[in-house]
User: Which sequence fits this backbone?
């Protein structure tokens, strides 16, 4: 959890990535591949524990047809993405998106142990 | 004893030192402990983003099944979740979460939750029992004190959701929790499609008004039982359903067929929700796997993470999450 997390103001979907704009005016791009590879659900997360499985997940994600997801807000703390193919289960906390925007490991380097970091 | 418990003033001294009697000292200590607990409850509350109470008018409708199912379904999404089980009469959450026989874990004066399936943190009244088969008969004040302690002294850490499982009916426990834990998002009411259960769930909805906790919605549990099978492709199938009804269906090209039996009356939960103007969060099928899961400690959502019951729970969870949208002033623009 980061204390300095600014409020997200704008989430613009483009063909292959999103442009996220924060309250302080900072702007970031996150590719859909990065977003999908970082899915926090209980099925995708454990795959990132092991390098080989993580690379596999990456390849699977990249092999999916490129599409713009449907986006929904979840409460006031997260976003959910719906894709026509691949996993749509994960709920992305704003902290996670902020980490992705800043090219940081959203799992904070910690392995996933049956459901919790 | 000659000294009065009321006054400790030295009768002749004018600048008497504030020497408290043992009784007064005890009172002060209690007041201090109470204040500390209140502060810690507020502190704890800040670290928990959402708090959801799960209630039912009647026992045995599946309240604990729904509480654990909601928790696991949220955890499946990658959220951090805790369950507080304060059903003293029949705390069965630990069993469903694979934590049978756990005892309370206390470290430097703080209670630490146990971790069940999918990392869900669990605190249960059952952790206080020597023997799970002995029902606890606790007198009111002791019981409510234990609940406050369970709220104030538990080291939950940061949670996205805390699900609170209550005893059935409109008892003191929800009131105690609502008064102790600030910012409760609301309550989920579990019912089955039977008339009696529905009648009782109406009481719960009225009860919520007196608690000043909003109803997030009604969940109808054990709503129907789906049987599927194989027959000759295209053949007509007749099934004798409850209440003397006959269900007809046709096997598809591969010979597969499935029909859903309404074990009880259908749609009552939805009607109740409509009648009271509260949201209907969805229906959960009758699934014998829940009973097995309760016995062997592997919850249905864990044993079959993509099965029909897990899918039904995910739908209920997303309806619930829609109800919890607050603070929409954030003004996020999605393009
Ligand atoms: N949807 C369901 N399908 C089949 N059995 C269920 C279902 N929901 C609950 N049960 C079973 O009903 C019993 C009572 O459920 P429980 O969750 O303990 O109810 P409560 O907490 O309301 O007393 C348990 O044996 C449980 O496994
Ligand atoms: Mg129960």
Assistant:
């Amino acid at each position: 959890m980061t204390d300095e997390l600014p409020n997200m103001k704008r989430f613009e979907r483009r063909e292959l990535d999103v442009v996220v704009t924060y309250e302080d005016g900072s702007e970031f791009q996150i590719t859909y591949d990065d977003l999908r590879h970082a899915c926090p659900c209980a099925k995708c997360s454990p795959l990132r524990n092991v390098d080989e499985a993580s690379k596999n997940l990456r390849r699977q994600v990249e092999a999916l047809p490129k599409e713009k997801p449907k986006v929904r807000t979840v409460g006031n703390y997260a976003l959910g993405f719906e894709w026509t193919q691949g996993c749509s289960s994960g709920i992305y906390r704003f902290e996670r998106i902020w980490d992705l925007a800043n090219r940081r490991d959203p799992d904070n380097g910690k392995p996933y142990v049956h459901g919790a970091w | 004893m000659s000294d009065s418990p009321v006054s400790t003033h030295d009768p002749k001294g004018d600048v008497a030192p504030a020497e408290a009697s043992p009784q007064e000292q005890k009172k002060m200590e209690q007041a201090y402990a109470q204040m500390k607990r209140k502060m810690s409850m507020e502190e704890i509350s800040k670290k928990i983003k959402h708090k959801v109470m799960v209630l039912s008018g009647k026992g045995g409708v599946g309240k604990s099944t729904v509480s654990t199912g909601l928790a696991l379904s949220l955890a499946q999404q990658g959220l951090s979740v805790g369950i507080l089980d304060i059903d003293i009469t029949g705390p069965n959450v630990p069993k469903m979460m694979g934590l049978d026989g756990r005892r309370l874990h206390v470290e430097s004066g703080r209670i630490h939750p146990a971790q069940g399936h999918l990392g869900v943190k669990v605190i249960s009244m059952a952790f206080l029992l020597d023997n799970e088969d002995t029902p606890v008969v606790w007198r009111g004040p002791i019981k409510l004190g234990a609940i406050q302690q369970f709220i104030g002294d538990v080291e939950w850490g940061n949670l996205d959701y805390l699900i609170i499982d209550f005893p059935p009916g409109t008892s003191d426990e929800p009131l105690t929790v609502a008064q102790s834990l600030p910012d409760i998002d609301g309550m989920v009411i579990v019912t089955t499609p039977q008339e009696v259960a529905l009648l009782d769930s109406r009481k719960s909805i009225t009860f919520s008004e007196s608690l000043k906790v909003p109803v997030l919605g009604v969940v109808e549990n054990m709503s129907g039982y789906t049987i599927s099978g194989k027959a000759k492709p295209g053949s007509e199938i007749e099934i004798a359903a409850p209440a003397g009804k006959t269900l007809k269906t046709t096997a598809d090209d591969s010979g597969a067929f499935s029909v859903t039996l309404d074990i009880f009356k259908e749609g009552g939960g939805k009607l109740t929700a409509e009648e009271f103007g509260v949201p209907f969060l969805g229906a959960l099928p009758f699934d014998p796997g829940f009973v097995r899961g309760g016995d062997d400690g592997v919850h249905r959502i864990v044993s079959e993470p993509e099965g029909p019951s897990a899918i039904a729970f995910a739908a209920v969870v997303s309806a619930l999450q829609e109800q919890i949208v607050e603070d929409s002033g954030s003004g996020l623009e999605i393009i």
The pocket of adenosine-5'-diphosphate (ligand 1) is lined by residues B 56, 59-65, 92, 221-222, 284, 286-288, 290-291, 294 (CB under 6 Å).
